[in-house]
Amino acid sequence: MGVPRGEPVGFSAKKFHAALAQVLKPAFTLAEIAKLVGVSAGQVRVWRTEERFKKLAEELQVGFVNYISDQLDYDSKNNDKNYTLNFSCLVMFPDGIIIYYHKLTESLLCITKQINQSQNDYKLYVEMKELMSQYVLFFQGLSLMEVSKNKMDAILLKIFPFIEGVLDYFLIILRNQEVDEDIKDEASSIVKIIALLCFV
């Protein structure tokens, strides 16, 4: 009998499902994982000591966190009410916040690079506006989940090197005579939010 599609070779269905359930630790206790999978708690305890099992659980966790990160991107762009719920899932994982922060920063680096090449490129405005909204929701989520101030400050310090370029871009939008007044009002609000977020 072959290994079901999607399961690593050498892992039974129960062992693979135990690794999946391990992803949601500490939502599930060892006993709950064992009951869910249909094996003894002792068997799960033994599996947890195996390097291949631990590696698989870690890979599944990263994949799940990346999935949640994609959902947060969707929620933030569509004003979805699920953002807070998905963010609370992200915070469950020790590296969840860091993985999502890196995802946002990679996007910021990409857009900043394009801005440096062509600062008057208005096409980037919508992308930058959406990204700033994601950052604001991200920090609101950290505050709501009572993430320590030290951790929030550490994340902000990593963003600081890019903030000047972001502010310069929105100031260029504000000074552009061809830009609609509604857009300028929006850009002005974004500048104020960035200032409050980073300098207060």
Element layout with pairings:
Layout: H1 13-23, H2 30-37, H3 41-48, H4 51-77, H5 83-91, H6 96-117, H7 124-144, H8 149-175, H9 181-199
Helix pairs in contact: 1-2, 1-4, 2-3, 4-5, 4-6, 4-7, 5-7, 6-7, 6-8, 7-8, 7-9, 8-9
Question: How would you sum up this structure, described in words?
Answer:
Helix 1 packs across helix 4 and helix 7 runs parallel beside helix 9. It is built from nine helices and no strands. It is mainly α. It folds into two domains: 37 residues, no CATH class; 133 residues, no CATH class. 76% of the residues lie in helices and 0% in strands.
Features:
single chain, 200 residues, mainly alpha, 2 domains, 76% helix
Shape: elongated
Percent strand: under 5%
Radius of gyration: 22 Å
Global mean pLDDT = 81
- Distance from N terminus to C terminus (CA atoms, Å) equals 63 Å
The helix/strand series, from N terminus to C terminus, equals: HHHHHHHHH
Q: Give a count of the beta strands, DSSP E runs of length 2 or more.
A: 0
| Residue runs with pLDDT of under 50 for 5 or more positions | none
Helix amount: over 70%
Count of the domains = 2
Task: Give me the secondary-structure category.
Answer: mainly alpha
Q: Main beta sheet, described?
A: none
How many helical stretches?
9
Task: Summarize the model shown.
The chain is mainly alpha-helical and 200 residues long. The chain folds into two domains: 13-49, no CATH class; 67-199, no CATH class. It contains nine helices and no strands.
